[in-house]
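Instructor's aside before we start: the two examples that follow are unrelated to each other. I chose them only because their records fit on one page, so don't look for a connection. First example below.
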Amino acid sequence: MTSRPLVTVYSCSGEKSGETTLPAVMSAALRPDLVQFVHTNMNKNNRQAYAVNIHASKKVVAKSWGTGRAVARIPRVGGGGTSRSGQGAFGNMCRGGRMYNPSKTWRKWNRKINIKQKRYAVASALAASAVPALVMAPGHIVDEVPELPLVVENAIESTKKTSAANDILQSIGALDDVEKAGNSKQLRAGKGKMRNRRYTLRRGPLIVYKTNDGIEQAFRNLPGVEFCCVDRLNLLQLAPGGHMGRFCIWSQAALEALETIYGEGGKSIPFATMTNPDIARIINSDEVQSVVNPMKDGQKYYAPKRNAIKNVDALEALDPYAAAKRRQEAVLTAARASKKDEIMAKKREQRKSKRAFKEQGKAFYEKVSVQGTVCEDGFTIE
């Protein structure tokens, strides 16, 4: 087996007290898609069943009027003397009616998850907790942390006072993340305030131990701090929200226990299907290009078919006379466009001359319409 890097073990005062080997599971393949899938399904297994009352909106007596009355056949409230009588009932489209597809308690609430997928996801989450970039991505403050994964001597498991726990976190540089979680406490939006989850809080460090000799009592009152036994690693804690990169603080015994939990005689360590996922680099490498067949010649390329309706040259190959006619039409159109100003001026002159003749006609009509003086003094018929 190849040698693995060493991890520094820090004392409760923040000084280096030794070294230990990095567990092999910390080099497992990172599968964020699998972690997200498993987390989503695991998170569904702690839901409480809910449903509407089976008698909701059905306590009223209603009956359909049947056909022939030019109204819908929805059940209607009987009786009289009130606006409620004659109103539709029971249907989801009615005021005061039941909901569509009422929820039932026998819905499929839980999800079965493949055990290999769960183990793969946990191993990926453990490996991600050793990468500083992935730990900082969810928002953990690890600027003062000397090393990741952060390992503390076994004396941390026997800590029983919160003041001592606070000093330990201060000495190893993890107190900033705890204060960040404490400062994020705020009232929850919505009705969750009335349902025993009044406040929201960001996640702080996860403390992984081997034996609980008082460590939970010491750290449980610090905001955002969670605990997990190394024998019962939980993906919901290692990757909250389905996002890898939880800031973990390990006791030395817990980190060394990963060697027996994973590997020979324990759970198998997943490995990546490809050590180099850069497909383009693999294909273009000299090793691959030297054995693949060369590019085949002689492939014919055909020009795209021309549309005779839009292309005059294509139309000429099919019907020369139609092409000549279209070209002539184009020439005439261009000529008309160039003579447009001249033609319009001529038309305006014609209209102007017509208006002049119209004035002469009006004057002549008025002249001939004047009453004569022949009968001015009257006349007699003999």
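Example two begins here.
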Amino acid sequence: GSTKMLMTLGAMARGAVLLALASVSSAAAAAPMRLSFAPSTAAAQGSATGILMPAQRLRGGEMKRALSHENLNSDVVGQMDTLEQRIYAKDDTNEQRSLWHDLPLFEVDAANKPTGFVNFVCEIPKFTRKKFELATKEPLNPIKQDEKKGQLRSFKKGDIYFNYGCFPRTWEDPDFVHPEVGVGGDNDPLDVCEIGLRQIQTCKVRPVKVLGILCMIDEGEADWKVIAIDRDDPWAEKLHAIADVDRLLPGTLDVIREWFRTYKVPDGKPENKFAFDEKYLDRAFTLQIMHETHRAWARLVKGAVEEAEEKLEEAQKLPEDKKPEPARRKFTMKRNLSVPAMDALKQVEGSLLQDENGLADALKQASMG
């Protein structure tokens, strides 16, 4: 029964985003600057991938190659340990890119097919305590050190015991209430705890294997914590499920849970609570949460595009001498978050369906495993 259910979820995952992206294409078709998709056939692609891909040009702009951990570098702007410091991701053309929006959720191989591993963006290296995070409200979403009342924040509890970061192209929607949790999301990308042996540096991207998930309730918001391990870690070939972590690395998951339970106590706040009787949930459930948050991210971006199109339609009704200059913004604000504007979708849309195909395939494999 559970196998059939998960296989159905996999099919739903693929269909849901095909429908969502079709909505984006339909809405854009009504405007002069439209998103165009090539047919999802091998003949149209000139290859055997069969993956729906965008046209190679969008509004006169060249399609950019998908980001990966192999073609990313970091660019530190501003002085260390200041409120102004930002760490940007740069591609191999030396252009700054968004780790939240431009980086695919799933790693792809040389043939442009998902490998089954997920791109993990490291914000806080293990054995450190500075509270770095993606700046979701700033264009290009650099990584910055969090601040409160003008003071840089660090964990008063001490150093963190694991590499901490997030998955790109995910968003915990405050308006989405999981039926088994009862509260909405925390308005951030999906958090990840990487439990491998090596320290991963801030702004570094690594392909990871997903193992399980913990649901923390933080000040009335759902704050999911995915447990994952670096693909190249010595333990990766032995850890295939959350139960393997308990069996082979006893105490690891308890330490993570206790960290999140008490890390705000030194700030005078109460202990955090957890859903699901404080239990870690398996890989199949984790993939469902990843699908929910990836679909929420797609809705967030789609909403920003529709908003831009409405403004464009209004501007076109104005007399020629009062029409504004063509927008060249790459980012716009939606729900107080910085997301790609229409002109920037050429950097994003190319691998949306690859991410969905990767999720659907992973769900199917989890149901059979």
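The first strand starts at residue 57 and ends at 58.
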